[in-house]
Amino acid sequence: MAKGRIRAKLRKSHLYTFCLYQGPNGKGQQTVGGPGFSRIVHCNGPQLQSERPFKYRSNDISTTKYSFITFLPKALYEQFNRVANLYFLGCAIASVTPLSPFSALSMIAPLAFVVGLSMAKEALEDWKRFMQDMEVNSRKVKVHTGEGAFGKKAWEKVQVGDVVRVEKDQFFPADLLLLSSNYEDGICYVETMNLDGETNLKAKRALEVTLDLDEDEDFKNFKGIIKCEDPNPSLYTFVGNLEYNDQVYALDPSQILLRDSKLRNTAYIYGVAIFTGPDSKVMMNSTNSPSKRSRIEKKMDYIIYVLFSVLLVISLISSFGFAVEIKYSMPEWWFLQPQEADDFYNPEEPVTSGISHMVTALMLYGYLLPISLYVSIEVVKVLQATFINQDIHMYDEETGIPAQARTSNLNEELGQVDTILSDKTGTLTCNQMDFLKCSIAGTAYGSSTNAVELAAAKQMANDLEGKVELDAVVSYSEKDRQSPIKGFNFEDSRLMNGNWLKEAKVEDIILFFRILAVCHTAIPELNEDTGSYTYEAESPDEGAFLVAAREFGFEFFQRTQSSVFVREKYTASGKPIDREYKILNVLEFTSKRKRMTVIIKDEDGQILLMCKGADSIIFDRLSKDGRFYQPDTTKHLNEYGEAGLRTLALAYKKLEESEYSAWNTEFQKAKTSIGADRDIMLENAAEMMEKDLILIGATAVEDKLQKGVPKCIDKLAQAGLKLWVLTGDKMETAINIGFSCSLLRQGMKQICIPAIDSDVKEEVKGAILKQINNGSEMIKAEKDPHAAFALIIDGKTLSYALEDDIKQHFLDLGVRCASVICCRVSPKQKALVTRLVKLGTGKTTLAIGDGANDVGMIQEADIGVGISGVEGMQAVMASDFSVAQFRFLERLLVVHGHWCYKRIAQMICYFFYKNIAFGLTLFYFEAFTGFSGQSIYNDWYMLLFNVVLTALPVISLGVLEQDVSSEVCLEFPAIYQQGPRNLFFDWYRILGWMANGLLASLIIFILNIVIFYNQAFRAGGQTADMAALGATMFTCIIWSVNIQIALTMSHFTWIQHTTIWGSIAAWYLFLFVYGALPPSISADAYKLLVEALAPAPMYWTATLLVAITCNLPYMTHIAYQRCFEPMDHHIIQEIKYYRKDVEDQHMWTKERSKARQKTKIGFTARVEAKIRQIRAMMNKKH
Amino acid sequence: MADMNRERHRTRETAFYLFTQQSLPACKPVLTPGWVITIFLFMGLIFIPVGLITLRASHSVVEIVDRYDTECVPEAFRIDKISYIQDDSIPKNCSRFMKVHKYMKAPIYIYYQLDNYYQNHRRYVKSRSDKQLLHGQKYHDTSSCQPVELNSGQPIVPCGLIAWSLFNDSFTFIRERAELKVNRKNIAWKSDRDHKFGKNVHPFNFQNGTLIGGGKLNPKIPLSDQEDLIVWMRTSALPSFRKLYGRIEEDLDADDVIVVNLMNNYNTYSFGGKKKLVLSTSSWLGGKNDFLGHACVIIGSSSLILAIVFTLLHLKYRRPHGDTSYLPWNRKSLSG
User: Fold this and answer.
1) B148 at the A interface (CB within 8 A)?
2) Complex ipTM, two decimals?
3) Residue A423 bears catalytic tag
4) Where does this protein chiefly localize (chain A) (predicted)?
C-alpha cells in the first residue's frame, strides 16, 4: 500500500501528449435513454437493481450445453438426431409388436446400451465444462459492502451497480466504469490480450469528477446513476453518461474496463459494474461452441444413407416376394393353415401382408446398419484421445501440462488438415522481447550467427562431397541461448562488463546507452529480494531496452514528476554515479508517429533531444551531418530484419537553450489549445522539433519465439500444410515474425496490401481489388518454379477484402501464396478469415491460438487448438485440443492425426464390410423361406455379433493400428498427405470394401447351403437342420471377418492377437456354454456344438474352406497392390522390415531428405533458396 | 519376496507406460512376395489333398433315390391328386421296386425327402412350444403354437403347426420275400430325446379337430419315444430336405431288388411337392455330396495358380523389396 501511495504522486498524464486527450464529446449522448440505450445503473446501490426493470442478469456465467433439467430431453434429441439411431429407435418400438422377427430384448438392449453410453460421455464432458465455469465464477474480488468497507466476494455474486476494487494483475470481473486508480490523474493500464490479442498495454482514464474517490472510505456516500447503452458485443464503443452530484458527464470507451482484461502496472482501481455475466461485452462476443463433426463422420452419414437405401431396396424386394408368395403359394401350403391365418399371412390381402412385412424386413436386415458402429467409434475415439493426453512427447516439462484432447470427436480430422491458421502472440512467440543486438556508431555488436547461411554453407559443402547429412543441415538455430535475465540475450564481450570503455567511439556508445536509459515512459520498481530494478513498461520492447541499459551499466532507478535518475556503473573514476536528467518534454510513441522523443536537460545544463523510432522515419529526419553512420547502420538493419528482429533506430540532437524555449512556447500553446485542430497543432509542433537529428545506432530486439517453433513450422510445411498467420499486431512486427519463423525470406515476393486511407468505401474497395488482381497476375506470370510469394494484408483492408464481392479473389490469391500474414485483425476477422478458408477451399482448417481473441477462430475452424498454460483459459475452453506449446502441433498432426485418420477410416470400412457380410446372408436365407422373415440364426448370435463377437478386434484396430511407427511419421512428414488427399476413405475404397462384404456374404451363404444341402452331415445319418446350418454359417462368418481384420492390420501387439483369436474362441465358448444351458433357455442351440457340430468333420472342413475362400480375393488384392502398386507406407514398412534403414544409413537419410512435400516456406526451404542464390552468384562469377 | 513384488510391479508399470505411449512391442508382418507365394502355395497344398480325401469319402457313399409321389397315385386319380390324397376311403398303399446297383454296407440309412416344402417358413417355425414338449399339459402358455393351440377348449399336446403337419408316409422293405429289419430307434438327436421331449408327456387331444394335418400319434407312447415326431420337429433350413426314417442294419448286395411297400398318406400334392425315398450308406464324412470336395480342389488349385502367377509376375516385373524408387517423391508422375 505504501508503495502505491508513493507512486500515486506521479501524474502519468505528464508523460502523455497525444493520447488520452478528452475533447468535448457530444456524439451519441443524445441517444442515451432512447431505444437501445435503456440501461440504468445505480452506482453503489445494487439493492436498487434487484427489481424490474433494473434487475439485470447476474454475473455468473455458464458455458455448459445442458442443465440438470434439460439434459435428458436435449441429449436424447441429440442422440436421435443421428439417422441410424432414429432408425433403431423405430425398430425398437416395432420390436414389441408381433411383426418383429426377433425378440424385443435383442432390439432394445443394444440401442439402450449405445445411446446410454453416448449420453454418459456427453454428460461427462459437460460436467467438465461446468467445473471450469465454477472455477471462474468463484474467483474472488473486493466489493464495497457498505459504510466504506470492502469485502471479498465471488465473481458470480457481483451485481450491477457494485463498486469493486481490482488490484494489480487481477482480471476485471465484469465490465466496469473506471472511477479512480492509484494514480492521481485516474489513469490505469489494461492488458487486453484476451480480447484482441494486442500485447501493448492500453491506458484508461477516469473522469475528473470521480478522481477523489480513491480510498475505501470515500465510497460510503457515493451515489451516482449511469445511463447507457444496452448490452452489445462491440468492444470498442460505449455510449452513456454518469449523473453525479446533480451533473451529467458523458462517458466514452476510455472509461470502460472490460471483463477478462487485466489490470497492469497499476496498484488498484475502483470501478462500478455496468454489464455483468452474459451481458458483458466479452461474453456477448462469445458464441456457443458449435458441435463439430469430422469429415469422415459426415461422409459416414452418406454411407449410412447408401446402406439405408440398400436396406430399403432389399426390404421392398422381400415384401414384394412375400406378398406374391402369400397370394399365390400360401393357399396351397396347407401345413401353414392358411385358412386360419391372421392379417399378416392372409392370402386374401397380400398387400396388407406385404406392407406389414416391410416392417419385419426392415428390422431383419437392420444388421446392414451397424448399431454398434457409433458406440465403437466413440470408444475408439476416447481411447485415442487418452493416447493423445498421455503422450509423453507432447508433455511440457516446464509447465507440467500435457496435451489434451478436449473433444474426442475430431481425432481423425487431425489427419486431414490442409491449412493451419495461427495466432502469433503467445502461440508462435512468447510475448517476451529480448535485447539481442545493436549497432552503435556503425559497428555491429552482438553475436551474429545467421543460422540460414550457416546451414546453407554446410549443405553445399556436403553436396560437394557427395553425401547428404540432413540432420546436420536441419540443425535449427536452437542452441540454447538461454539467458538468465529476462529480456536480455546479448552476447558480446566488447560491450559487457564495462568493456565498452575500451571501444574506439566511446562517446557515442555512452550516448547510445543514455538514450536507452532515458527515452521511455516506464517506471522502475525495486525488487526487494534481489535489490535490482524491474521496469513496468508499456510495451515489452521498452522493457527490454531498460534491462539492456541496466546490464550495460546504465541503471534507470527512479522517476519523479520531472526527472529521470540513472545510475552509471562504469565510469572513468570507477565509482557509480547517479545522474539526473530533467525531462522537459515527452513526445510519446503512437502507431502513427512511429517514434518517440524526449527532450531533457542533463546535469551540465545541456539540452538534448533523444529520439527512437522506426528506421525509415528516423532516416527521413536526419541532418546532413547526422548521416555519417547511415550506410553501415542500414546494412545492419537489413541483416536484423532478415533475421526477424524488431529494429529501432536511435538518434539525438543537441539544442541551444534559446532554440528550445522558442519551440516550447509554440508547443505549450498547442498543448493548451482546445478544439478539433489541437492534435494537428501538436503534431506540427513535434514535427518542427524532430528534425536535423544525428543518427547514432540501432537496436535489434527479438520477439522471442516459443521453443521449437521454426522446426515445427518447417516440418509442417514439409508435410504439405499451409500456414496462415493472423495477428493483432502491426504489420512490421508481423513481418519480423514472418522472417524469424521462416515464413518469409529474402527474395520472396511480398504482396503487401496495407491500410488505405480513404473515406470513400468504393474507392478503397477498388484499390484493394486492383492490388489483389495485380498480385494474381504477378503469380501467374511467374516462370521460376522456385519463386515464392507472400501475402501480407492489414486488418483494415482485410475488412473490405472479406466482403462478399472481393473475398473470392482474396482467397484465390491467398491460396496461391506460400505464406499469408494478416496483421491488425480483430477477433471477428480472424473468425471470418477462417470461415473463408474453410468454406472457400472446402478443405480442413485448423486454428491455433492462446487468447480470448482467438476463440472465434478456434470455434470457426474445423479443428480448434488452444495453447494451454497461459492465464486466460478462454482459448482452451473453446478448443477441441489443447497443447502447451506450438511445437507439439507437429506430433499432434503428423503422428496422432495420421494414425487416427487411418485407424478410423479403416475401422469404419471394416465395420461396413462385416455388417454387409453378415446382414446379407439373412436376406439370402429369407429368400429361401418364402420371404417369410425367418432368420437362420438364433437371436442370441445376432445380438452378440456386433456387441461381443466382433467388437473387440475392430476396436483394437481403431485404437492400436500403426501403419508406420511414430518416428517414421516424423521422419517422413510427406506420408501425412495420405490424410488430406483422403486416400483411405474415398468412395472407391468404401465401395470396394462394400463389394468385398457382398462377395463374402455370397460365398458364405452359397457354399454353406450347398455343402449342407440334404445329405447326412454327421455320424448317425442325421441331416443338417436349421440350427446346425445356422451355427455353421455363423462360425464361418466369425472366422471370415476375423481373418479379414487380421489381413487389414499391419501392427500386432499382444492385444490385437488376444482380441482377434479371443473373439473366435469366444464364439466357440459361447456356443458351448449356451448349449450347456437347459433347453428352455438355449432352445435350438442346445448341445449343438457338443453333440452335432464338433464331432462332424464336415463342420470343420466347411469352416476352413469358407473362411479361406472369403478372404482369398482380398488377399490377392493386397498382395497385388503391395507388389505392383505400392503406396508410401508399404515401401517404408518394407524398408523397416528388411532393416534396410539400419544397413544402409545413407539411403535412409537421403530418402528422408526427399520425403518432403515441395514447400516454399519453412527453414529448409529457406536454406534451399539461399543455396540457389549462392549458386547463381557463383555461376555469374565463372 | 518384496523384491519380486517390486520387480513385478515395475514390469507392469513399464508395460502400461509402453501401452500409453503406443510403443508396445509388436510384430509387423509385411506381405512380401516371398510370403505371398508361400501362403498361396501352402493353401494349395492343404486344400487339394483335403478336397481329394473328401471327394473319395463322398464317392464311397452309395445312394439310391426313388421318387414316388406321382407313381403311387393310381392312374385314375392322376388328374386330381389332391382329392385322391384327401379322400380317406381310398387305400393309399403302394409298392415300389428299388434296385441296388452297388454293394451297400450296413448301416443303410433310410430318408424321406420332400421338395418345395417350406418347413422354414416363419409362421411354421414359430408354431411350437418347447416348454410344452418337455412339460406337457403342466405348461399352459402355448400362445406361440398359434393356430394349433387348442381344440374345443382343450390344449393340444404337442401343439403347433409343426407337430400337426407330421409326416406320415410309412415304408416297409422286402428283399427276396423276407422283410428287411428297419431299426427306427435312435434316429433323432440324443439331446432331443433326453432333454427336449418329456418322458412323461403323452400326446393329448392330438389331431382331434376338424382339420386333420399329418400323422397321428399313439397317446400311450411318451413324446420322448416318438422319434418320428422328434425328427420332424427339427425344422429344416431349406425348402428341400431329407429326414431320417430309419436304418437297415443288413448289407445290401449289388443287384438286389428291394420291394418297398409304402403308405402314401402325406399330402404334398396341394403345393406340387415331390416325395422321394432315399437309401444311403454313409462315410466318415456323412452322406453323398461331391460339392465340398470339388470346392476344396478348386480353391486349392486357384491358390496354386495364384502362387505361380505371382512367381511369374515377380520374375518379370521384379520390384526389389523396399525399393525406394517407388516412393512417391521418387516417382516422376507425382513429383512433377
Assistant:
1) yes
2) 0.94
3) yes
4) membrane
